[in-house]
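Notes continue from the previous slide.

Worked example: a multi-chain complex. Inputs as given:
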Amino acid sequence: MSRALFGHLWRSQRTKLLVVAVAIAAWSVFLPIIYSSFGQQIKQVVDSGIIPKQLMNFGGGDPFTLAGSIALGYIHPIAIILVSIFAIGFCVSAVAGERQRGTLEVLLARPVSRRTLYITELVAALLFIGLVLLAAIAGTVIGSAIAGVSSELAVERLPILWLNGMLLWGAFATIALAASVSFDRLTPALGVTLAIVVVSYFLEILGSLWSDAQGLQAYSLFHYLKAREILSGTIDPFGFAVLAAVAVLAIGWALVEFPRRDLAAPS
Amino acid sequence: MDALATTALTKRYGHHELPVQRLARRLGRQPSGDVLALDDLSISVTEGEIFGFLGPNGAGKSTMIRLLLGYLHPTAGSASVLGRDIVRDSVEIRRRVGYLPGGIALYDSLTGERLLDYLGELTGRPPTRRAELLDRLEMSARTLRRPVRDYSRGMRQKMGIIQALQHDPELAILDEPTEGLDPLMQRAFYDILDDLREAGRTIFFSSHVLSEVERVCDRVAIVRRGRLVALQDVASLLERRKRNVELRAADGDLPALEGVPGVSAIARTADGRLTCQLEGDVGPFLAALAGHAIVDLTIEPAHLEEAFLELYTDAEPEDGEAKAAQTAATAAP
């Protein structure tokens, strides 16, 4: 790992990191308050049959408990977009962006091996994602306190929830980095990564809303984010293993492919 | 000792590509498959010399530089830089080399000072020459406090030169180093090169500006379609070139130059002038002029440009010619 490169990445991302962390913390504060203030009213609306019950399965189901509402928040598009700023945006542009801008030329003219470059970018990405998820957890704790439902929150399980989130977004980050080191331009790297994330999300949502498509959920990485189950006391080691395996495969690809490939002169 | 040496270095794009790599290349608009960018190139650059590397666009100059610095992997052959193998020891090579890419791109959001600090930190060697370079290229402290995005093209090029040389590398690889510099800054840059030469540093210099190569380089290699077509010291390359001669004699008393050794392309104009080309020793030519009332005589010095153009307007070099150039290259000092 290159300390100089890591310092540069930290300096260039810290303002964005602060903004994203504050935004996701605010979002996470909001959910326990919504649950506390409007949970019962929403349940009555759903029970009345106005809203199809199947829609309540979105985000793992059971949105009328604190654990369920927090889980819904984690898979909500707002949270996904905020975490994706680093898990996808930062990672995709880490190498392909530098290559497209032409700055990879001066960077790789230094005594920095491609593997060192990759590992430094990976560590930075995981740190940024970890801090964003930490802000989300902090927001959840603060929101629960504000709403007066702290007693319902299994605080001791929050580190496991953070780890589960890290594995999910870490897997997407490693996929994005693998795409980034494989292409010379940002567009195809971003396209491939977004396709994987969007299809994965679509399969999970489709499976949760339509019982006939439940079998497709196993092919979605989002399916292995088990926020509600973790907060309710259940841990799915298989899900953790799947996410870890995807990350290991993507890291392996990048570590083999990046040093081997030719970097032609930028056009 | 050689600062840089290549042996039958060859680069073919698209060689043994996996399907997924082919897809990535196409999506990424990399060069099309199966292109021979560098073919069996053997040269050596001696420590302490300024070595010119010439060729038009697409001749293989950038490919050569990119192979030396590890951006590309050779298809065949080998090369060493500062005694280190370019494949095995790429990181160590880059620790001791300074590189100015052609059309350099910099981190626009950083200030000039922060950019030089960052690149210096990555190099891991103290920027011992930075202050001197900033002074000679007239980059003030105030300018360095501005973001690079505000810099003109010339200022960016100066930053490129400074980042390449600030840590006093043993070998500098400079691709079109004076692009965008005004004549005063070009002169300042030539002075910097002179100082580096005196300090025993080696410069690998790629340029399209032939007058500049002629001025600063000790030896030149000329590549064409990835193959070496000439490798000589500049003085002897110019010595062999034909010089253009024009003379005028009183009362149209023009000398008969036909058959004079070294004289060719003789032509007489209607206004009483004679033009010809002169190669090698001028003695026989001057002897032929004796006894004629020459009132005006111009012998233009030979320029590298003519040598370069001659090599490029010639037919495709025969294998024997290419081999001869390769042999000369490997036998060079």
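Summary box: The interface with chain B takes residues 2-5, 7-8, 12, 101-103, 105-113, 182-185, 188, 260-267 of chain A (CB under 8 Å). The two ends of chain A are 29 Å apart (CA to CA).
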